[in-house]
Amino acid sequence: MTVCGITAEYNPFHTGHLHHIAETRRSLGENAVIVCVMSGNFVQRGDFAVLDKYARAEMAVRCGADLVVELPLAAALSSAEGFAKGAVQTLHALGCGMVSFGAETADADLLLQAAELLNSLPMEGESGSPHLSYAARRQEELAKVHKQAAALLDNPNNTLAVEYCRFLLPLGMRPLAVLRQGAAHDARAPHSGFASASLLRTHLRDGDFAFCAPFLPPAARAVWKKAADCGEAPVALPEDTLLALLRTALYQGRLRTGSADGFDERLRKAVYTAHSFSDAVEKARTRRFPAARVRRALLRAVLGVEADAPVSPAYLRVLALGVRGRAALRQAALPVIVKPATEKRLPANLQAALCRDAFADDLFALALPDPERRIGGGHFRKTPFCLR
Question: Which residues span the membrane (predicted)?
Answer without folding.
Answer: none
